[in-house]
Amino acid sequence: xxxxxxxxxxxxxxxxxxxxxxxxxxxxxxxxxxxxxxxxxxxxxxxxxxxxxxxxxxxxxxxxxxxxxxxxxxxxxxxxxxxxxxxxxxxxxxxxxxxxxxxxxxxxxxxxxxxxxxxxxxxxxxxxxxxxxxxxxxxxxxxxxxxxxxxxxxxxxxxxxxxxxxxxxxxxxxxxxxxxxxxxxxxxxxxxxxxxxxxxxxxxxxxxxxxxxxxxxxxxxxxxxxxxxxxxxxxxxxxxxxxxxxxxxxxxxxxxxxxxxxxxxxxxxxxxxxxxxxxxxxxxxxxxxxxxxxxxxxxxxxxxxxxxxxxxxxxxxxxxxxxxxxxxxxxxxxxxxxxxxxxxxxxxxxxxxxxxxxxxxxxxxxxxxxxxxxxxxxxxxxxx
Amino acid sequence: xxxxxxxxxxxxxxxxxxxxxxxxxxxxxxxxxxxxxxxxxxxxxxxxxxxxxxxxxxxxxxxxxxxxxxxxxxxxxxxxxxxxxxxxxxxxxxxxxxxxxxxxxxxxxxxxxxxxxxxxxxxxxxxxxxxxxxxxxxxxxxxxxxxxxxxxxxxxxxxxxxxxxxxxxxxxxxxxxxxxxxxxxxxxxxxxxxxxxxxxxxxxxxxxxxxxxxxxxxxxxxxxxxxxxxxxxxxxxxxxxxxxxxxxxxxxxxxxxxxxxxxxxxxxxxxxxxxxxxxxxxxxxxxxxxxxxxxxxxxxxxxxxxxxxxxxxxxxxxxxxxxxxxxxxxxxxxxxxxxxxxxxxxxxxxxxxxxxxxxxxxxxxxxxxxxxxxxxxxxxxxxx
Amino acid sequence: xxxxxxxxxxxxxxxxxxxxxxxxxxxxxxxxxxxxxxxxxxxxxxxxxxxxxxxxxxxxxxxxxxxxxxxxxxxxxxxxxxxxxxxxxxxxxxxxxxxxxxxxxxxxxxxxxxxxxxxxxxxxxxxxxxxxxxxxxxxxxxxxxxxxxxxxxxxxxxxxxxxxxxxxxxxxxxxxxxxxxxxxxxxxxxxxxxxxxxxxxxxxxxxxxxxxxxxxxxxxxxxxxxxxxxxxxxxxxxxxxxxxxxxxxxxxxxxxxxxxxxxxxxxxxxxxxxxxxxxxxxxxxxxxxxxxxxxxxxxxxxxxxxxxxxxxxxxxxxxxxxxxxxxxxxxxxxxxxxxxxxxxxxxxxxxxxxxxxxxxxxxxxxxxxxxxxxxxxxxxxxxx
Amino acid sequence: xxxxxxxxxxxxxxxxxxxxxxxxxxxxxxxxxxxxxxxxxxxxxxxxxxxxxxxxxxxxxxxxxxxxxxxxxxxxxxxxxxxxxxxxxxxxxxxxxxxxxxxxxxxxxxxxxxxxxxxxxxxxxxxxxxxxxxxxxxxxxxxxxxxxxxxxxxxxxxxxxxxxxxxxxxxxxxxxxxxxxxxxxxxxxxxxxxxxxxxxxxxxxxxxxxxxxxxxxxxxxxxxxxxxxxxxxxxxxxxxxxxxxxxxxxxxxxxxxxxxxxxxxxxxxxxxxxxxxxxxxxxxxxxxxxxxxxxxxxxxxxxxxxxxxxxxxxxxxxxxxxxxxxxxxxxxxxxxxxxxxxxxxxxxxxxxxxxxxxxxxxxxxxxxxxxxxxxxxxxxxxxx
Lengths: 384, 384, 384, 384
What we know:
The structure is a homotetramer. Chain A is α/β, with parallel strands linked by helices.
């Protein structure tokens, strides 16, 4: 790490000291010393916002009472923030991101990036028009071995792609919702807050993005079957099975479940090509299973010398020392920051990719198509 | 094993000494000394038939030139066969089975049991009318731990069933078909011989049966997406993804693939209930993963004292000494033979179940529904 | 399988119909139709012996009242047995085997082959002097992938051998002995019946043999630490850790345990060479883990086309259809029978190896060395 | 995290920006915002030291030309450091640590803590006399599920302990040393720099510490067999097998290897008790395998509600989101910092333990005993 590289300043909207996701983003952001937290509107509660600033060493005069004030004032400062990190609830992402973009400030935002695809489309357009980088933190895609997989696929190692299975399964809803409860549900289960198809917005979109980053394929059409459990209580779908048309005759299936008892946090993907297959599962996030046609399965391990340079560059500890979700998340920040730094200092050369507002937009289209397909009785819906 | 129990005699149609499946059946049949091979029409080639008889100790006068002759003559003998095992290619099952049933001889037959569901339906009717047991050798369902799973589900251990994923994946087709070959394909790839949807007839029906035996559920409706690879060469579908409606709002997904590089022989199932989940995979066929809601996953091992009596009774070696496909197959024969013996000797009491012609019939309906759904553009097809 | 090959006849001593091990041997013996059970002294109880004969189709006139009578009479018959299978308790093996050898009859015998190494040495000498094959049924070594491993090692695939770890762990003793019980222990725990170091005689010798068959190495010296649990009850060691000197500077470790809760039946081996390593474990008996230096680990699967011809020849069902302990045991019988057939019919060519009385002898030396080392305070004991 | 808790300041000796271990410690130290890097003597090269300071935001006036100067000056400052982190090569730890202790500054130091046990003993004595906390960063012991294991053992969940197997295996040496090379070896292989028994100092001591933290047991006596590969090149042992006497008749085995091809970084432990067993392996660092006697194996997952409060408190991301080596390392820092904070602010109550200089001292005794035992021909050596 070069000393003179450490010069990005960022602000954050949301992420009060007592929130979970705020710390994840802050840990991720500083993991490579590429960005320092310098401003914030961490909470609507100014007291909380100030306390967060104190913990994280943000100067009091850069703690703002509103995100619009922050966008305005930071844009005017000589030493203003180089980007903003948005970690508020989903339904506020759009307005906030739009405001910062309009003030010329690049954005990194949690997923799902907006409440509707047309909002995401608008953000995409603004970021393109203004050439402002916009990252969306699909954290699972940051694992180094996923880069390895993508490079192998691009190099033709497994031949022509034929079929893909991808999933994100967890047990969060079924573990925490009492099916007999008569009490008010927390806001996370209110359709007006989170949209329909909780399973798709929360985690299906992770699976969809994993599919895209791992393989480079896009979903052309889909046919979704959604289900709700526990039925008597929840107003939202918590399990969905989706048939995929990935173009060129490539078929696939996507499963997103929040009732998958026994699968605490289990994104995963299996890709069949004409010359081999690749398989990855979050339970062993540094291992890529590669089976060449008619040959033994190989277990590729992140960080080893036989993996690609780019993949190795995403590792922070020695091979097999285990890197987890924080480090994967950190790689989204790293690649985003290096892109910003390259732009700021006119550094030429290739940068590693990260999920952008274009991916965020496709994610929204995916969620909406699932809901539409399910409502119409499980019919094919075009995404493009 | 009681000495006086050893008194079933059986004949075989097909299964020449140089065939693979014949030996599997013969090994399975004698594994518990419940049945002795006493007659056969092992091949159209009489020489081969005689040689097979010699190897397996069948008296020359009970080697027949045709299966119809065998059915007729054995039915007349005082010491005639107690059942016939049919291991010929699929498209001849129907005629042969019908003939033996009509001569009053119970049948055990390889799967898929016929070429069309109406043939299976007819066989079902005859076997019912004549009260003749008719087994279909869905071998994977014979693993002892699958009985354990079924009993746990019936006892309500995982609560109300919510969602099921089941599969059979192998790489047989993609490993053995040269996508560039100009030569004539072997008969196994001729649609007129094996019907459409090779993946469903060959192995999808194993997955469907695994679902039924494991959970006790039936498929009410399905929506299938089939695919063919290698496209330039094969006239038959080799990969299929199927959405399932299992009644009472229970959804599911079934995947059958013969192009699954990296999965040599991988049937498997995952069942989510309101209070827990169960998972089984053929790679570790003696292990059942059971996860109670909000508790650690448990690994139940076939043969251990904490498994059910019925499940233990299906084990032949000490726990963890590994029992494989032959032993599982042997359990289909065992349960079928014990049913026949109970009938023959009027022994009262419960017998362990085995897949019957009713299951074989449902399997045919399943295959046909997959083909129809796919042809009609992936629409729901009722099975019942 | 050639029809005219089916011509070995064998007898059995021990293995009454109500014994466990008798059936294992009989199943194994007939698995390839190479040998037919024709004579027996299955029990001291003649009634039981006759009942066993009836079940297994042995003619009444070849059921003998004693093994010495059987040896004598069978040796005189024109159609006398080609070999005898000895499955009595350990302490009677020596006398019985000696008697049959002296009557010119080859032997296949359960392990440990005798009670003392000098008995085994004597049997070895007789079998050599008379050129009589003598197999010892170390069943685990019959798994096809173990042959694959041995061939890879012999071909230098993992280079010069450096270090080996081998084990057999099970929980049998700790699961079945009540540490508070005041009752008489079953005979299996009486030192005078089974010798000292139960863990070594019962299962350590399996690990020792696995080491030899897998690697081709022999133990030159060892240093053993034995332990007894539950201490208050058992008069015998049930857990042992052994340092190994395997010659040429190769070191190793062997662990045998009958108190290994969580390891129901877990033989396993890990071999490090200068260019790679090999690992096998009984939990997935068809998989060989091969890691070349600085390259991904490969999972070799028994029966696949990339494994050796000899290894493939030991498989009976398609790859990944799971073959278990019975089939592995059957391979010991198969290789032994093919050796006998080659001798009988003067068929030239290489035969696949099987564990012989020489291995049985080394096994006894191993057990005795463990006991001696432990008694002397954990010092090195030479085996050769 | 409470805002007013963020008030420890620390300095570092060693850990220039271009070193690997420095960043690991700095990441670990700031993971919970409990400590801020405020001073440093990062390198003998002042230029490098300054550059490191710049990257990490250390004020120029607190970059020191020597560690002794740093100890002296920081001890005098009102706002001096609350502890020092020592990440220099092993042979300098002693002097540096002693100096800081003498200036009243608590120490956290990499392992092995010194070059000789008597140095460690001296440090132990000083730290006791002055009541100065002294942590040693055995990183693997920081995984949350290891705390869970320890609490289960202390609660008697697996009964009386009977036998333990522990290891640390990696392939670092064999992957990087060319056995044919004639060139000078890097300093890591010079006995005068690192002491004898590289495998024990480097990683065996990790295994020893894992044993102690996981079980609470100590090694009373040991008997070691060491080996060197590649023999022609290396002057140091790279593989060791150690028999353990853990007191009260508890036996064990420890294996440390740097030639374990196929095991990139594989610490692990298996503990048998009279009522159950526990198993942990670094490949899946959040999973604890617990097998109660005669019951199914359970897979306990870090962070789930059924694990202990203390264990859960060590998790930073949701269960199954994967936490790796950095987070485990961070837990050593966290527990050390919370101990310091409790002392500084007189906060009562229990704190979570961390490896201390007492453990570091025992680690040195362990290494020396291994070397002595091996030199004397594999005899028992007392540690206490």
